[in-house]
Amino acid sequence: MMSLLDAAQDVRERAYAPYSKFKVGAAIRGESGAIYRGCNVENVAYPEGTCAEAGAISSMIAAGETRLTKVAVIADSPNPVPPCGGCRQKLAEFGAEDTVVILATTDGARLETTIGDLLPGRFDAGHMTNAS
Ligand code: THU
């Protein structure tokens, strides 16, 4: 069976990053065990670009799953690349505090962390109890 990291590495090859030249691949495992992949997709209007993690999450939601159990992100970087702030919040929406996030480089460096460690004190639904 293909590992989550292999899936992230595989989809990274298809990243569309002509502006930054920085290709990122992300793979997430849904509760069903299925793997969903995403890569960064840039745009000439730079802010319209999307991150690899966001693409993987879209793929999971489109397939009908809403909970993720593991995440892997890979890039060609001197050190494992941490998800940006926005992607931390996006991952937190669908994973648990102790959900493992593997950050990797194409040279073989690995860093294992969790969604909770990436986004301490996150904004969650509990903050909106007076919203109705
Ligand atoms: N990028 C991701 O796709 N994920 C990350 O975790 C960090 C950054 C992308 C966005 C942009 O296309 C390129 O990397 C440079 O920032």
Describe this structure in words.
With 132 residues, the protein is of the alpha+beta class. It contains 4 helices and 5 strands, in the order αββαβαββα. The chain has a 5-stranded mixed sheet with strand order 2-1-3-4-5. β4 (100-105) and β5 form a beta hairpin. It is globular. The N and C termini lie far apart (46 Å). 35% of the residues are buried. The model has no long low-confidence stretch (mean pLDDT 96). It binds tetrahydrodeoxyuridine.
Domains, number:
1
Which stretches of 5+ consecutive residues score pLDDT under 50? none
> Structural class, from secondary structure content?
alpha+beta
Named CATH architecture: 3-Layer(aba) Sandwich
The arrangement of helices and strands along the chain is HEEHEHEEH
Tell me the CATH topology: Cytidine Deaminase, domain 2
**Biggest β-sheet: count, sense, barrel?**
5 strands, mixed
Work out the helicity level.
25-40%
Strand composition percent? 15-25%
Bound molecules: tetrahydrodeoxyuridine
Q: Mind telling me the C-alpha Rg?
A: 15 Å
Please report the total strand number as a whole number: 5
- Straight-line distance between termini: 46 Å
Outline type: globular
Mean pLDDT across all residues, rounded? 96
Count of alpha and pi helical runs: 4
Name the CATH class. Alpha Beta
Strand order of the largest sheet: 2-1-3-4-5
CATH superfamily: Cytidine Deaminase, domain 2
